[in-house]
Specification:
Blueprint lengths: L9 H4 L7 H10 L8 H24 L20
Length: 82
């Protein structure tokens, strides 16, 4: 007797009339409120986004500072032309 392979795929867990993947895709499209991501996936993505934000901030802080308009006077307001 063979055992069923473990899977994380929702397509294999949903039982609809035909059980075909194409029909599952149609059902998923028709019922977006019943389809949710797993808590594991959501937690993983949240962690990835946090790490990405930390890395981006570190890159910005470690990069060299460049003066965009070094020849302009800093004491004159932008609208004042004297």
């Amino acid at each position: 007797m063979t055992r069923k392979k473990k899977t994380r795929s929702l397509a294999d867990k949903v039982t609809i009339k035909t059980g075909r993947r194409k029909d599952y895709k149609k059902w998923r499209h028709d019922n977006p409120d019943q389809v949710t991501s797993s808590r594991r996936f959501v937690a993983k993505k949240q962690q990835q986004r946090k790490l990405q934000a930390v890395r981006k901030l570190a890159r910005q802080q470690s990069g060299q500072h460049i003066a965009i308009h070094p020849d302009k006077d800093t004491d004159n307001p932008p609208g004042d032309r004297s």
